[in-house]
Task: structure prediction
Amino acid sequence: MAYSEKVMDHFANPRNVGEMEDFSGVGEVGNPKCGDIMRMYIKVEGDIITDVSFMTFGCGAAIATSSMATELIKGKPISEALKLTNKAVMEALDGLPPVKVHCSVLAEQAIKAAVSDYYKRQGIDPEPIVGAIPACEECGCEI
Result:
């Protein structure tokens, strides 16, 4: 499999990696059956994601997509972060091999899961805002 220079850079030098202690929301997606598990933390002030970090157990593509996703939502309003698609993550990384597309799906789902948790902590039903977080399309595991 050929990976782009951006994928290799985000794998070798991941941005925003680590646990966050004072998070506003946290989401975990994936399944040990897939082999990839992502945990994404967000810090929200007002409506802006002021800080974001992740912990990912998985392949290089999973780490790279997590890293890129955090870069793409940091400093953005929640509404903009929720519009981030797995395709946008892949484009920002200059593509992924077809067998690794599910990693970008997990990154998109991790953001939605973290925002859902944020809204739950605020006493707000997240589903009308975030939508349902479906099963992983690639392997069928529950996210």
Remarks:
- DSSP finds six helices and three strands in the chain.
- The mean pLDDT is 92.
- The helical segments are 5-12, 60-73, 78-81, 86-92, 101-121, 127-130.
- The beta strands are 25-31, 36-45, 48-57.
